């Protein structure tokens, strides 16, 4: 009997010890999440020194400047174009800051980048580097297969692809589908690829392989980039000399005061939908009135158009971003041509790709670029511009007063950036869709 009691006590002691260890690990993980990327990198470098005699335990990073030099010297590439990605943001930031605009173009969408790379190669005989997120692979399929691929025009280029949703890593719902599919998509496109090593000797070998393929096969070659491959590199903070006073989140709070109970809201991809979700939560509004377009960048306005045409008795607000509108700007013509009187298009223009590193968009040139003029040219019935609280109040009152003369576009020029502690939607995409569809059926 005593032995049984002793064994039970030992098992309880072991269980308690394991629980303590798990809690300690959980606390350490929680602490790591609170660290900045720079602090995490410094901590990892310190660990690397401690285990330097065991290279299999060392965590390497690519220096954006050194990798840029490797791309230039090994592959002979000095022309860059593409759409920024969070996994590539450090390399994209280095290119944006250090490569002249004549040799670097942040394009409207990934397909456009392929076209630019094709033209650049034919003009110079040198391949370009095209950077993109793997969610942008859909946009490159047509120009790759009908232009660049060997057997058509045979136009070589190096594709640097951020591998969101990499198997075994946590990510947002749309990336969890896209990630595992990425290798298969590239294989189906007959594009050879490999994962970019996170140490410079390995990166050099990968670039040599890419160079040989581009020289012999005359076609695209892809490098998949995993998370935290690059050392941190940040763009200088955007100096606001335009007198802008509101952040996107502050402007969102202002316009939301003019939403009615039956209004339908479609939020664009990125930080705006996250801010909308938190705003509803703070106010206790519920989330059924909002469709959060977590994927499909540039398609929020098309989704909103489909709803507006099928529910003409409901006011539909499309809350869009400058980068998203630019990506598929042609839909503005469709919106104007179908002329849904219930369509209210609000574009938050901070002149940056805010969700993936703050790289600039062409919409940030406020002296030259105007969403209002573009929308008018497409046939929007009314366009407005607001930059502060009084202007937003006046514009929203006018917007609500327009009943049967749409579509209407309101451009809000706001400061770039977002809260560091901004959360993510806690509702699943499936729940969002079900509740939203139910809300659309209400009379």
UniProtKB/TrEMBL annotation:
UniProt keyword Coiled coil, yes or no: yes
Family matches, as PROSITE patterns: TPP_ENZYMES
GO biological process: organic phosphonate biosynthetic process
KW Hydrolase (keyword) present: no
Molecular function in Gene Ontology: magnesium ion binding; phosphonopyruvate decarboxylase activity; thiamine pyrophosphate binding
Boundaries of every Thiamine pyrophosphate enzyme N-terminal TPP-binding domain copy: 75-170
Catalytic reaction equation(s): (2R)-hydroxyhexadecanoyl-CoA = pentadecanal + formyl-CoA
Gene3D superfamilies, per database record: 3.40.50.970
Pfam families: TPP_enzyme_C, TPP_enzyme_N
Record's keyword terms, sorted: Coiled coil, Decarboxylase, Lyase, Thiamine pyrophosphate
Domain Thiamine pyrophosphate enzyme TPP-binding: 287-411
Coiled-coil positions: 27-54
Protein name per the record: 2-hydroxyacyl-CoA lyase 2
Organism: Adineta steineri
